[in-house]
């Protein structure tokens, strides 16, 4: 089919949706790539589908290159398989759940560990290993706040792959193969994705790496060292802190009045108070229904995901004021763990063996000073619980760390034997022993990658698609469609480019040249060949590159070859 703009559905808009904040959201709607059906659900229009398919083709190519085999699994799952793995409850409200006419519990798939593991039950011997299986398929997650166009949605296409092996060394090899493939994928997508240490969250497992693209539209904070020695999601980040000398003037535990004091800052200011580094901040949390005290240094913030990872809790929330008073007898601002019995206490590593500290006395308007953690608080578990802040020292080289907002564009996990043990996916090893398969799980959101590319490659005039994923690589723009010489030349160049395998669009619309130029820039076509009567009279056409806006005159007879060469170099 001839790709002529006059026949295509490319509904460009002058204005972005009123609720659009992210650049990708604004431009993908304005450029006629996507339309929202309802919150978190988007239709891909022809331009959007072309980009989406090109991203998927790159992902598929690199997966095939590491020996992965493509599947297509059901999107609707029986609840039984999720109950078998123990994740029916873990996934909580983000899982779309329904019942069929017989009353059987079902779910729309958020991910496919369970289903792929059920297929792996047919692997009986280690001789069939390793296996890498993948699919590109629709996933569903009931996001509480869908936003930013394709960046946070409730229905999306995802490449999810799964590796199966016998030994930890085999799992490591599969993990490394995916790591290398992801680096190549993001390079081909022209995304500056950096691999960072990450939390495994509800996926479980021992190792986790995210691929993060720096962007103000992102929702994740990455802590990184400017020297390149270290990078981690804020949920996993650590830093080196200066040593704190404990106060030696307050070694005896004593209770003192603090009327009206409810904050760390206020306790710093009053007479007899303490600097924040000598205070204990007590957070009352409910972990799987159990009241738990989470303790951090007064100048630190509790990282909830670190608490979840450390404790293995599934359902985590702050305690209500009523729960806090019931279990501790005081309101926030006067809380502490001194002498507390019968409640679980988890403390941050920075409080280990500290003394001379100040904390709430579990009585409104009263605090303790002279607190020795080892003597006065019965800590059940020590863990890294604190947020890392920019400017703190890199744990590898000591340089000041920086905080970068990012889009999570890929995530790879070492799952180990968790799912194989739950579902009984075992094989006979060389000694004839029945052992569970070791698994890895690896994901890339296709639509999110489209949005991340749009976030990374745009200007105030519109999108600037990299050649590899552009909906069209070239647009041939006719300034005056009534000029016969212009029309015949355009048809000639259009046919020549198509014969060279170039994805080309012929803008034959009855519209002003300025409108055509603006639309081509808005939808981000990398190369524009402009045919006008004036330049054509000299035997030339204009060639404009979208990325830098530079326009050059090129002879009619050589423009197709020149543009084709530029595209081939960029693919």
CATH superfamily of the largest domain: Bira Bifunctional Protein, Domain 2
Rg: 29 Å
Structural class: alpha+beta
- How many helices? The count is 16
Sheet with the most strands, sense and barrel status: 9 strands, mixed
The percentage helix is 25-40%
Arithmetic mean pLDDT? 95
What's the CATH architecture of the largest domain? 2-Layer Sandwich
3D structure, described in words:
This protein is of the alpha+beta class. It folds into 3 domains: 17-237 and 403-455, BirA Bifunctional Protein, domain 2 (2-Layer Sandwich), CATH 3.30.930; 254-383, YbaK/aminoacyl-tRNA synthetase-associated domain (YbaK protein); 472-570, 3-Layer(aba) Sandwich (Rossmann fold), CATH 3.40.50.800. The protein contains 16 helices and 31 strands. Strands 3, 7, 8, 9, 10, 11, 12, 21 and 24 form a 9-stranded mixed sheet that branches. Strand 5 and strand 6 (105-108) form a beta hairpin. The longest helix is centred in the first third of the chain and has 21 residues, at 168-188. The radius of gyration is 29 Å and the shape is globular. The two termini are 23 Å apart. The mean pLDDT is 95.
